Amino acid sequence: MSADPEFEDLVKIHYPDLYRFGLSLTGSEADACDLTQETFYIWANKRHQLKNPTKVKAWLFTTLHREFLQARRDETRFKDEPIDEASAEFLTMNADCVNRIDARVLLSFLGKLDETHRAPLVLYYLEDLSYNEIAETLSVPLGTVQSRIARAKMKLLRLLNETNAPK
Amino acid sequence: MTTSEAKSKLLLYRGPIDDVDPQFQEALAHARRDPELGQWLREQTECYDSIRAKLLGIEPPLGLAEKIVRRRPIPFPRDWSRIGQLAAAILISASITALLMKWSERRNHPVAGAQEIVVTGEVLDMTCYIASNLSGPEHAECARICIRNGEPAGIKAQDGKVYLLTGEPGQSINAKLAEYAAQVVTIKGRQSVRDGFAQLQVEEIRKL
Predict the structure, then answer these.
(1) Which residues pair with B197 in a beta bridge?
(2) With CB atoms 3.0 to 4.6 Å apart as the test, which of A108, B27, B138, B188 could cross-link to B6 if both were Cys?
(3) What ipTM was assigned to the predicted interfaces of this complex?
(4) B51 CA to chain A: closest CA distance, Å?
């Protein structure tokens, strides 16, 4: 049934990562599937507009994120704070503690983060993108992306620590 | 650079991927000199690796790639000479079809007036049903998306007969039908049949 092997190869390479990104943003498997499908649909229609083929991955993530924001139409404004202030405690935790946690629990913690902080944090963990590429993907300045990641990461570690704290 | 300043920098350090990033160089050098900071950095990167592995362990649902590929639009070559040829072919084909239809209208009796009927059955996404025989609850999500996106919808009656579902002339009913994708409903509407192909213009939908 294959009439477009190039498209199928692209899907095979990128759909798992896009799905995980979508799932981390929405917390819903069905919404993540819809977002992933919609992203490739848009790609199939607009691929001729992309001048630099090495930017395909960033283009796909940007599109999925844009579709997510459009779906949510969340106009919430937020305030970014410098990393130093945000990370005053410098929490860290034992990797074994993370390993004991179910992926679903991790997703539910990601869902507790502000949307504008969740997306850069997920790209930070999931994708081998430089900070400049993450900033470009999300269309926000580099400093803003880094402060959002730092804040989101501290909040995530705090939630993980609370889960592992003795009852 | 103080230990606290180094930590604030290294909070974002992920491991080898960031080794070439100049913003971490000074802090990394500090961590090599300070054993306590070095230990903190090791825990920090191990924790990063664990969370990353946990997220990468999430597998997409089975069949998602196939759905994406099936839904892709047919690529259209942007070659203007080819587009011109296609346009001419479509024009000639449309003219011949129009002539044949005119000729056929003269020879055939018109179709009998639409008749009101009630049909109970499963709402189908006709594209997947005809091409791949896909229907039923396991195909519900795909059917909902396809119908919502404008693919033709149908209903398979309990006697096995399939009807194409339409709205009033010029009005799509897909948004409404998408809500009932792959569900069994009762539809009242006006049936028209031509060349053995049945169409039902929906007037009322009731879910069982």
Answers:
(1) B194
(2) B27
(3) 0.77
(4) 7
Please check whether residue B83 touches A, CB under 8 A: no
Query: Quick one: three-class SS letters along A85-117?
Result: HHCCCCCCCCHHHHHCCCHHHHHHHHHCCCHHH
Chain A residue numbers touching B74 (CB-CB < 8 A) = 3
Q: Which residues contact A101 (CB under 8 A, 6 or more apart)?
A: A160, A163, A164, B54
Q: Which residue has the tokens 């229609």?
A: A45
Whats the size of chain B, residue-wise? 208
CATH 3.40.190.150 matches B115-207: no
- Closest Cα in chain A, distance from residue B142 (Å): 10
* CB–CB contact B52 A125 (8 Å): yes
Residues from chain A contacting residue B5 (CB–CB below 8 Å): 84
> Which phi and psi angles does B176 have, rounded to 5°?
-70, -45
Q: Which sequence spans correspond to the domains of chain A?
A: 5-72, 83-164
Architecture of domain A5-72: Orthogonal Bundle (1.10)
Domain boundaries in chain B? 3-56, 115-207
B49 in reach of chain A (CB within 8 A): yes
**Model pLDDT for residues A96-114, shown as the tens digit of each residue:** 777 778 888 888 989 999 8
Length of chain A: 167
Cα separation, A161 vs A31, in Å, equals: 29
Q: What count of CB pairs under 8 Å joins A to B?
A: 126
Distance, in Å, from the CA atom of A77 to the CA atom of A75, rounded to the nearest integer, reads: 6
Q: Which tens digits make up the pLDDT trace of B33-68?
A: 999 889 989 988 888 888 898 888 888 888 888 888
